[in-house]
Design a protein that fits this description.
Helices cover 19% and strands 0% of the residues. It has 53 residues and is mostly helical. The protein has one domain. The chain is flat, with a radius of gyration of 15 Å. This is YCII-related domain-containing protein.
């Protein structure tokens, strides 16, 4: 059975994340530049955070 989450009337993406495995910050920035604009109007923001293993 599939049910809606806590925002039952919301049909839009509230938040999301992508984990990428790269060797440097520069490589992470290169990947981020390839990501689609989350807002769709050229003013979106993508946040990069380092995750330690």
């Amino acid at each position: 059975m599939v049910t809606d989450g806590p925002f039952t009337e919301t049909k839009e993406l509230i938040a999301g994340f992508i984990l990428i495995d790269v060797n440097s910050r520069e490589e992470a920035v290169e990947w981020a530049m390839k990501m689609p604009d989350p807002q769709g109007n050229g003013e979106g923001q993508i946040e990069l955070r380092q995750v330690f293993e």
